Amino acid sequence: MGQWKYSVLRAVSLLAITLSLFPAARAQGPSASPTKVIFDTDFAVPPQDDATALMLALKSPELNILGVTTVAGNDTVQRATSDALRVLEIAERTDIPVYEGFNRPWLHEKTEFATKVHGKWWSDEAPPMPPGGFAKKKAESESAVTFLIRAVERNPNEITIIAIGPLTNVATAIRQKAGFAKKVKKIVIMGGAFASLADGSGNVTPNAEFNFWVDPEAAQVVIRSGIPIVLTPLNVTSKTDFSKASYDKIVAADTPLTRLIKQTMGPWVEKHPTMHSQMYDQLTVAALVDPTLVKTKDLYVDVDINHGPDYGTSLGADRVWEGAEGAVKVSVQYDVDANRFLQMFTERITSK
Q1: List of domains in the chain
Q2: pLDDT of 15 above 70
Q3: Nearest to residue 196, comparing CAs of 320, 277, 299?
Q4: Nearest to residue 217, comparing CAs of 122, 301, 309, 305?
């Protein structure tokens, strides 16, 4: 071996030893910028999952929340806006603007059935006072749809939309502004349930999931838009579990957000000490922050907009089937590391 080759090999060996002693040195370099997100939600204070999903997003430095857009679903859009403003105030994040969106789905009309199941998307009731009173800051004068379009136009292919309510706002932006869909980086959606996967039943009708059922026409427009989509359906959320033990860990920490959770959830939890709840919107946010938490499968997906017993049902399969020629390939979550997800959620929610 020549002296030159020996010197090179010796230098390489010393470098390898150095890196093994200081592994952090290998990870150094320019840190990735936080993902720009818009948080589209049918918000309400805890125990609604939208609220704790927003708390998780606020506690995730990987995300840069450009704004919160509200829509009718769990309750009225007026309450969604009022409660979102108040939670941001409690979290000391009034720098994040709130934009009010649609107070009704496109075509879905109020029915007797709708009044008896979950949600007040059909109502115009004034919002109840949030814990501690109404927020001092008001919603922006700009509408949710106008903000969505403006933000995406100014940040082409940089914004991920977190959509955890009915998709009325997003679908309207797609319809209103040509080219909008091509400029959205990605949309992560809590919605749908798939009979072709395990645990595929709905939660408002036998087959339909609530968010898609409230505004099926909007859901179909978004699914077919061409935006890269990741779905968190009921199939995967059925594998999550939020128990009283998890609640106790959270409220044991003393922060403004955990005090809010204790104030609003505490009375119900005390009456239901054996509670076990699925985690819906929280998983959508967590999987955006850490995609390794979930397993996904590409399916051709469409939404039934025919007014009948399957109105609002999402369907998915490995290939396009007769009558679903408009179905498009979507990344669908079907499994989750539930323990690691719950640990992440708990640690971040309780952080100061």
Answers
A1: 36-349 (3.90.245.10)
A2: no
A3: 299
A4: 305
